[in-house]
Amino acid sequence: MMMVNEQEVRLAARSLQEGQLVGMPTETVYGLAADAGNHNAVEAIFAAKGRPKGQPIIVHIGALEQLDTVGCDLTQAARKLAAAFWPGPLTLVVKRSDRIDKTVTGGHDTVGVRMPSHPVALALINAFGGPVAAPSANKYGAVSPTKAAHVRAGLGDRVDMVLDGGACEVGIESTIVDVTKEEPVVLRLGLITEAQLTRVLGVDVCYSATSHTPSPGRVTSHYKPCADVYVIERPEIDAKLQELVSLGRQVGLVVCNVLDGIHGAHHTQVVGDGTHAYARKLYDCLHFADEKGVDAVIVEPPTGDGVGMAIMDRLRRASATVA
Ligand code: TXA
Ligand code: MG
Predict the structure, then answer these.
(1) Residue with CA at minimum distance from ligand 1 atom 29
(2) If you take atom 27 of ligand 1, which residue's CA is the nearest one?
């Protein structure tokens, strides 16, 4: 089990039982895990992240059947999507069961629930023996962690223990679908696309930027590294780079493939062709830019398929200048 042994998982499960916070690898990004049934532990998540109260936290389960203990009055759409995509990078917003505390759901009567596919996450949740609340393991508004080192760098000793499950396969946060109503609505884009959801449900499932459900991932400015992010198409990259350099700025570059004849960047990182590879590497590139201390990063946008749209959503928020 990748970089983590059974004993560490047992230790982490015990930490959760004792109300502590554990950095949990998942296939999307690392989560900051706590016992979903422990009010104080859930409060500690908000404190560690600096996350505003009232912002709901996703509950993670270790087996499909647990959906019925976390949620209630489940719709057909909820069951179909869980069967089709779990374990995996999909969060379902369902009606909250009484067993889930309102602190977890930010006072709402719905709950976001997901069964992750990462073997370490599943082992931890099952060793713990109950639902685990876990937002992404970063300070509020910052870039999500895709490696254990990102968690430690971002949260320091606010996290009691970090399980190192290697680099996250998916690299961006789960797709979120609200399945509480007759018409399912995508609240956050991710690796699982609108087209895939539509195929499983047989009805059009679309992203809505205007739904009323509050979600931190939906505020205009989010997923931000310390450096300013500029999303620039390839033909304009050189001009933007020269402009920033002439202003005396240290600039990092994140591009889809090797870029010849462009000079002056402090460092260049290649995310590779294809949107899956892009998603997997993007946050690591942004964390790397911060580690190198550049004050600007020029990012070449991905191509425009479904996953590309999810990436563009993150880049738009990362480059936004307003909160
Ligand atoms: O991939 C992921 O989803 C990761 C890993 C750790 O599972 N988690 C994650 O959590 O991204 P977080 O808290 O950083 O983002 C969860 C998003 C937030 O925007 C939150 O508002 C939304 O999910 N959410 C959670 N419960 C919700 C609910 N009941 N209704 C609407 N949105 C909800
Ligand atoms: Mg987050």
Answers:
(1) 111
(2) 112
